[in-house]
Design goal:
Blueprint (H helix, E strand, L loop, with lengths): L18 H6 L6 H4 L3 H14 L5 H8 L14 H8 L5 H5 L14 H18 L8 H12 L3 H5 L1 H10 L17 H6 L9
Helix pairs in contact: 3-4, 7-8
């Protein structure tokens, strides 16, 4: 998928069969199990933070370098992690937390399927109200927040924001991965200290 600017990227509901549909029937990982991994959860929080702050330069840069229409790809996740997240099964409880969740609720949806169902319902309600605007990154937050169980309060918390500024996508282990907005601490530590010269 071609790269595009985060502000211009538009997402439309996918009503055609895709690879996730066939994968979902045999998926064994649930989203609840997946989010027990603190590294994965941290990076999900970074993604939601960026969706909610698209005017921030670092957030926009990360979003605009994704290769997936749902932004679930590098630089936030490795390829294998992204596939695991997109094909994880969403619980009915999580679906109930989404404002634009369709009714009746389909069962055993993958993250990708749940997102498209909710997005289609969201856009249908928007068109019914006379609002023809396309879906932007900030419109995804309520859907992702409900699916992943992450709130705006969590991603706007001062401690989380400070941690994000310090380590970017590195999380607990400090590894920035593919986040080019991060500063490599090894490079920083190798710089000579100012004011110290040869004796």
């Amino acid at each position: 998928m071609a790269k595009s600017n985060a502000k211009a990227k538009k997402t439309q509901p996918n009503n055609t069969a895709n690879s996730t549909t066939s994968t979902s029937r045999s998926a064994t990982t649930t989203l609840t199990d997946l989010t027990q991994d603190q590294n994965i959860r941290y990076r999900l929080c970074v993604l939601l933070h960026d969706l909610n702050n698209v005017r921030d330069a670092a957030s926009e840069k990360r979003l605009s370098t994704t290769t997936n229409e749902l932004y679930i790809s590098e630089p936030y996740f490795s390829e294998s992690e992204a596939v695991t997240i997109r094909t994880a099964i969403v619980s009915s409880e999580s679906m109930n937390n989404i404002p634009s969740s369709p009714s009746p609720l389909p069962q055993n949806l993958t993250v990708e399927e749940a997102f498209h169902h909710c997005l289609a319902n969201f856009l249908e309600k928007r068109r019914a109200s006379g609002d023809a605007r396309p879906c932007g990154p900030h419109d995804m937050f309520p859907i992702y927040g409900g699916i992943f169980g992450i709130t705006k309060e969590e991603v706007n918390d001062e401690r989380f924001v400070a941690r994000l500024r310090r380590s970017r996508l590195g999380g607990p282990n400090g590894n920035s991965g593919n986040d080019t907005t991060a500063t490599d601490p090894r490079k920083e530590s190798s710089k000579p200290s100012k004011g110290k010269g040869k004796k």
